[in-house]
Design brief:
The complex is a heterodimer. By secondary structure, chain A is an alpha/beta fold. Chain A has helices at 55-63, 84-88, 107-117, 122-136, 151-163, 181-198, 209-215, 233-240, 283-293, 306-314; strands at residues 2-18, 24-40, 44-48, 70-75, 91-95, 169-173, 201-206, 218-223, 226-231, 243-250, 262-268, 271-277, 296-302. The longest helix of chain A has 18 residues, at 181-198. The two termini of chain A are 39 Å apart. Classes of the chains: A alpha/beta, B mainly alpha.
């Protein structure tokens, strides 16, 4: 059963522009443009896109904070617009930039308050808190006021806070933003275990593509409010990552090689990087052509990493999406 | 809708706010004392005026003091319990209002309790002291009706102030820059109600009687307590207005909650 379902969801905002001294002109901006998406129970779905692509707007609609202009949304079978409070008991939300915790109180107090806000039975709450203290090593700062926590500690606290009421669905908006490498790894490990062991459906919004590669079974990419890719990480690589790079170590340093169908993208002494299109040629042909021109010592083939792929998507290289936001006909 | 369990949760949210405030003891004490001093100055102004004149709008000093005390107590109760909705504008600007919307409780209830302002209770002590002194000093024949009217005045007044507070705070759903307008109506309204409204010009009296129902907080019910002439003689209003404060309070609540709901709906459709 689909836990999260969006059908033709549109969200438009009015933006007021200054036109003259006092007069203002209204302009309609489409933050989310006919997105349809279905996330099954137990999925861990990455939701990525450049700044302003409409990610946060989507998460806000899914939580019922804002309502869509048109289209249909169902979360756990409920309409977030009409059943916000009922739904709130079944979802957990982490906004990476803003804490849900009580700023001036010890972390333990926030957890206790949330037990009451969500009316979690005492035993269940105790068991959850203890489990999360172990998983996230919260023990040393449970009695520290939240404002004194480091960013990593606070994020661990926020993750716990979002999960104490056993939500079926967890929305994460940039949960690793600003964290150091160790904290990031720890958060990822934790999310994977929450998804695996508790069966929580996770929708993860992030800029950190390592998050996506390590965690997500599925990747949804949006840009300018439109869904431009929905599939596995491998699929996106093969769809948008048609290029491979052959790294050759030559016996001697030389000028850039000239190989049909490939392009030298880097030279470092005897090492050269040759990028080629898989549709046009093969790695074997490129290596053979290089071997004809120079003495080869070693070769390696680099797969495109997700970062490259997404950078290309964002820059408009791979997908052709018209820029709706500046379309004057919508104004 | 609001069951015992919900009230218990709100009590805990208030407790959390109070504990947070107590974390900064010196600051808390300072605010408490400064609230007493500042509101005390309001009353000092009235006292100074009465050293020059014997009556104000036909009212004696003790009568104005009663009006001031009753309104002040009602106001500070509302300010403490619901004045936190003032923070709506700040919350919307910072984006922290969204967190109350992802929780399974009323947004207004959470906002008011999370921003419960015990530090504002200083005014309660000050106005309470004035009220007690005035009750002793006013020259009236105390009847059961008059005695009962005092707590009714305060309760209805607190509800009316609270409704004005919610209604004006809800303006932030449309524009976060209009907080000053809200404060003008709440704090300004309180300031105006400290005096018998007969001293104001006709348009302001009408505004206070019919639009922002501040006259029902203090003036009209006080006419009854103080045994003064019915408003019919000065306003062309039936004397029943002296007893109408609870009804006006209920109506004000209905209007305020409608404005709040429309505002919240707007916020949720714009998200900004």
């Amino acid at each position: 059963m689909a836990q999260i379902e969006l059908v033709d969801v549109v969200k438009e905002y009015s933006v007021w522009h200054r036109a003259g001294r006092v007069r203002r002109q209204r302009k309609l901006v489409r933050a989310v443009d006919r997105i349809s998406l279905s996330v099954a129970e137990g999925e861990l779905c990455g939701y990525i896109g450049p700044n302003g692509a409409g990610k946060s707007t989507t998460v806000k609609m899914l939580t019922g904070i804002i309502v869509p202009t048109s289209g249909r949304i169902r979360v756990a079978g409920k309409d977030p617009q009409r059943q916000r409070i009922e739904l709130a008991r079944r979802i957990g939300v982490v906004f990476g930039q803003r804490t849900q915790l009580w700023w001036d109180l010890p972390l333990a107090d926030s957890f206790d308050l949330l037990r009451h806000v969500y009316r979690v039975p005492h035993d269940r709450h105790r068991a959850n808190v203890n489990a999360f203290i172990d998983l996230l090593d919260l023990g040393p700062f449970m009695q520290t006021p939240v404002r004194q926590l480091s960013l990593g500690q606070r994020m661990r606290g926020d993750l716990t806070a979002a999960l104490l009421h056993d939500p079926e669905i967890l929305y994460l908006d940039e949960p690793t933003i600003g964290l150091d490498v160790v904290s990031k790894a720890r958060v990822r490990e934790f999310l994977a275990s929450v998804n695996r062991d508790r069966g929580v459906t996770v929708l993860l919004t992030t800029h950190d593509l390592t998050d996506v590669e390590r965690l997500c079974t599925r990747l949804v990419v949006i840009d300018h409010g439109r869904l431009i890719h929905d599939g596995t990480v491998a699929e996106i690589k093969s769809r948008f990552g048609d290029h491979r790079t052959v790294v050759v170590d030559l016996e001697e340093a030389g000028p850039p090689l000239e190989v049909a169908g490939a392009e030298v993208v880097g030279v470092d002494g005897p090492r050269q990087w040759l990028r080629f299109d898989r549709q046009a040629t093969t790695a074997a042909a490129v290596v053979a052509a290089v071997a004809e021109q120079a003495a080869l010592r070693d070769i390696a083939i680099e797969e495109p990493d997700i970062e490259d792929v997404v950078r290309r998507i964002y820059s408009g290289d791979a997908a052709s999406t018209p820029d709706l936001r500046d379309d004057p006909s919508r104004a | 809708m609001v069951d015992v369990g919900t009230i218990a949760v709100y009590r805990r949210l208030i407790g959390a706010r109070v504990r947070s405030d107590f974390g900064f003891r010196a600051s808390f004490a300072f605010r408490l004392v400064s609230a007493c001093v500042i509101t005390g100055l309001d009353f000092a102004v009235i006292a100074v005026v009465f050293t020059k004149i014997g009556r104000l709008g036909g009212w004696r000093f003790s009568e104005v003091a009663y009006l001031y005390g009753a309104c002040g107590v009602a106001f500070s109760v509302a300010e403490t319990w619901i004045g936190g909705v003032d923070y709506l504008a700040v919350r919307i600007k910072q984006g922290t209002f969204d967190r109350v919307l992802v929780r399974p409780m009323s947004a207004l209830g959470q906002l008011a309790t999370e921003e419960f302002a015990l530090r504002r209770i200083g005014k309660l002590f000050q106005a309470g002291a004035v009220l007690v002194a005035a009750l002793v000093a006013i020259p009236v024949q105390w009847t059961t009706g008059r005695i009962l009217m005092v707590p009714v005045t305060i309760a209805a007044g607190a509800v009316i102030y609270g409704a004005v507070w919610v209604a004006t705070a809800a303006i932030s759903f449309w524009t976060v820059d209009a907080n000053e307008l809200g404060n003008a109506l709440t704090y300004g309204g309180n300031y105006l109600t400290q005096y018998p409204i007969t001293i104001y010009s006709a348009w302001l009296r009408r505004l206070l009687a019919f639009v922002v129902p501040m006259a029902f907080v203090g003036y009209f019910p006080s006419l009854y307590v103080l045994g003064r002439t019915a408003p019919s003689e000065r306003f062309g209003l039936p004397s029943v207005v002296m007893f109408s404060s609870p009804v006006v309070a209920a109506a004000a609540c209905a209007v305020a909650s409608a404005i709040w709901r429309v505002g919240l709906r707007r916020y949720r459709s714009t998200g900004s």
